Amino acid sequence: MATSSSSFSSPQESAPGVLGKVPQTPGDLIIYSLEDLKGSDFKRFRNKLSDFSYGDKLPIPRGKLENADCISTKDLLIDTYGEEGALDVTIHVFTLIGLMGPTNDLQERRGQY
């Protein structure tokens, strides 16, 4: 039975996104970025998002965003714009509301996944 344990990966060999390494999916990137926002910045993000059109897509209705947490907001972004579009929209909205730190962090993380 000792040989079966050798087939498991050690924590150091874990995939990206595990144990603080680079997230793997656009959804992960968005969640980590939204979770880093202060409460007032997250509220401003959701407010601007409800007024933001992207391509041929209409803005996400304010009523859907009003009480949305980070995960629900990420889900709404991806459902509305697709994974890559959701990343683009998140970066654009961060920029529009003057959150350059989160904008730069998200762009850097995006380049790593």
From TrEMBL:
SUPFAM superfamilies: DEATH domain (SSF47986). Residues 22-112 form the Pyrin domain. This is Pyrin domain-containing protein. InterPro entries: DAPIN, DEATH-like_dom_sf. CDD domains: Pyrin_ASC-like. Residues 1-10 have a biased composition (Low complexity). Residues 1-24 are annotated as: Disordered. It comes from the Eukaryota. It holds the Pfam family PYRIN. It comes from Aquarana catesbeiana.
